[in-house]
Each structure stands twice: as structure tokens, then as C-alpha cells.
Amino acid sequence: MSQAIRLGISTCPNDTFTFHAILNGLIDTRGLDFQIELLDIQELNDRLFADRFDVAKTSFHAALLLADRYVVLPSGSALGFGVGPLLLSAQPGSQPVDDSQLTLCPGKHTTAALLFALFYPGTTRVEQTVFSEIMPQLKKRQADFGVCIHEGRFTWQDEGLGLVEDLGQRWEQTTDCPLPLGGLVASRQLSAETICNVQAVVRESLEYSLANPSGALPTMRKYAQEFDDDVLMQHVDLYVNDWTRELGSVGENALQELSSQAKSVGLIEANAPGLVIAS
């Protein structure tokens, strides 16, 4: 008898690349029946807080707040150097100064929002909006700044917007760590055996796509905001790396640094438990 696993992943290309084989029934799932929802990252975060998933991709900011309820899987994460969100401006050359200005972030519990709070505290007003709406709203001058993630990192220059700062680059210079954006978490209610099986299936699905990257393109196109194949593969090249295969000690150190930085500015409680990576 198969075991149902409520799985949530994002629609961004690195996730659909990683889960291509699972989404299309191309590998053995070890008796697990994955009931998959593909959602915007903030929707994933919100549903995870509401216990709607057994396993899900989530922002590491959200994962820090849920560390007592979920463990991090070793595979499936997005972290690295040169992968961070970009702070863009509607008017090239302008800077965040005060609350007469408005900055759009892609969700309260995203790592992008955490970085803006770390590096631009007490500056502009902040509103949360779906990531795919941030650049269009900036183009219409409905906001002054926006923290841009996903495919927009590669296309913002075509939209006539300005670059204020690469927030990931600031993180790297401050911490000497790769930036941990998001990862897969599993509920502590699952048995150790089930978590181990989920991890093994995710790793096999990732290896399947890495062995034949172009084979995953139809799945990536189906859910992407950008449909240009070169942009999709740029996204994969940037966000899928050795730390996606296995977080390892470098990834674990980066998560500890994120926790420390978040605690230093009160974004999580000082006595909050740390993230645990499933063995």
C-alpha cells in the first residue's frame, strides 16, 4: 500500500527541473504517492505554517520560524554565490531613504524580505506582492523599489529598471557564506524511514534531470513565468548546484549564519531552535 505525501513545490525552474522525474512518473517513488501542488513561494510558506504539507519547498526565512515542526532535507535546496535577490528601482539612480517610498517584497517570510530587513532597516514602507507582479508594478511606477527573485534576475535590464543593489552579493561580502534562499523541509510527524525515502526519491529525481537537462524543459516551460529556453537554463545553471545535491557542512554553516543574522535584528526570537538537517 502506498503512503500519501502532501508535497508542495514552487513553479520556479529550479524546482520543476529537480522534480521533473517525480512530476512525470519517470522514477520509482519507493511506495510514496506524492500529491503535488505547485505554488508561489509565499503561498507555500503560508500553507506550511498552516500544516498543509508533509514535505515542501520553503524560504529558509520561513524554515527558521518553523524549526520546531520541520527538518531540512539534505537535497533540493537553492543556495549559492551570485544567486541573491536584486533590489530594483522604478527610477534608475534612486535610493531607499524614508517611508515616503514604497518597496515591494515577494512575501513576508521569504529570504528576500529578510535580506531587505537586514540591509535596509527603517527605510521605506514595505508591501508584499506575488513575485511575478513586482517588475510590472515598478514599470507602472506603482512602487519605488522591488526585491526581485527568480527569472526576473535575468530580464530586469530589458524593463528599463534600475539596480540599487545585489542583496546576495552584500550577504556574501558580510558573511563569506553562500546565500541560503530556500530548501525542502519535511514534517517531524513523518517517520524517520519515510523522511529517508523522500530524500532518496528527491535526490534520484534531481540526478535524472542532471543527466538529461534538456529533457526537463517541457516541464519547466509549463510552469515558468519566462518561456525563453535560454533563460530557463540560465536559471537552472545558477540555482541548481552541488549544494542542491547535498547541503553538506558549507550549507549547514550558511543556515547557522542566516539564523544568527535574523536573530541579531529580531526577525526570529533569540532562543528559537536552530534548523536540523535530516540524516
Automatic annotation (TrEMBL):
Keywords: Lyase, Menaquinone biosynthesis. The keyword Lyase applies. Gene3D superfamilies: Periplasmic binding protein-like II (3.40.190.10). It catalyses: cyclic dehypoxanthinylfutalosinate = 1,4-dihydroxy-6-naphthoate + dihydroxyacetone. Pfam families: VitK2_biosynth. InterPro entries: Menaquinone_biosynth (IPR003773), MqnD (IPR030869). It comes from the Bacteria. Catalyzes the conversion of cyclic dehypoxanthine futalosine (cyclic DHFL) into 1,4-dihydroxy-6-naphthoate, a step in the biosynthesis of menaquinone (MK, vitamin K2). This is 1,4-dihydroxy-6-naphtoate synthase. It comes from Stieleria marina.
